[in-house]
Design brief:
Keywords: Membrane, Transmembrane, Transmembrane helix. 62% of the residues lie in helices and 5% in strands. The protein has one domain. The protein is mainly α. α1 packs antiparallel against α2 and α3 packs antiparallel against α4. The longest helix has 47 residues. The protein has a two-stranded antiparallel sheet. The protein contains four helices and two strands, in the order ββαααα.
Length: 217
Amino acid sequence: MVLKNVTIFIDNNGNHKAIKSYSFENKTSKNDKERNTVITIGIVNVICQIGVYFCLLKFEQNSLIIGITGFIITCLSLIIFYYGYYKKFKRYKYTNIIYIIFQLILVILIVLRMSQYICYSTIHKIYYLDIKDPLNNINENYFSKGMDKSSTILLRCCCGIIFIIVWILGLKNSYYLYNETTQLVKKRSNIKKLNKMKTEPIQVGTQKANWNQPCIY
């Protein structure tokens, strides 16, 4: 870590004194960059969620309620995420973790349900098995014995998988932002501690220097 604005003062008596003034990075540009990153991640993930919804909406009986519920969860977690990086309150970085957790829950639920669709369209079609939905919410027009519309289901699931991959990449960038924020907070905390340190002059010449006092050159 490079520390800037460190001045060494030597008075007429030959006394050395380190005058510290460690500057922070440009907080305004850094904050704008973080907020723009949060907005970009949020927009990409919302678009991906809407894309997944339109790919799979015909497969569930209560697809509208499911879609609205997921959208509300995403919006609330995104608001918390953005608010944390906008206000920069203490431990604001954990709003990022909250967002990631809620989004991962949605992704896992969608992937599990999509795996069920693919299983019905392949194994149940090949062996001509009866279809029994544990949630009793599947659209029987698409999922019936024999799976006449299996090709449509598989095509929609493939499109949904593409949206999910982009969605996960957005969450990956969100995690990178969390790590970057953690390092930045740690760095600023160290600089604050260094700026609070008191330095005293070190005598040179015939006098003995007090090496127990911190002095940074």
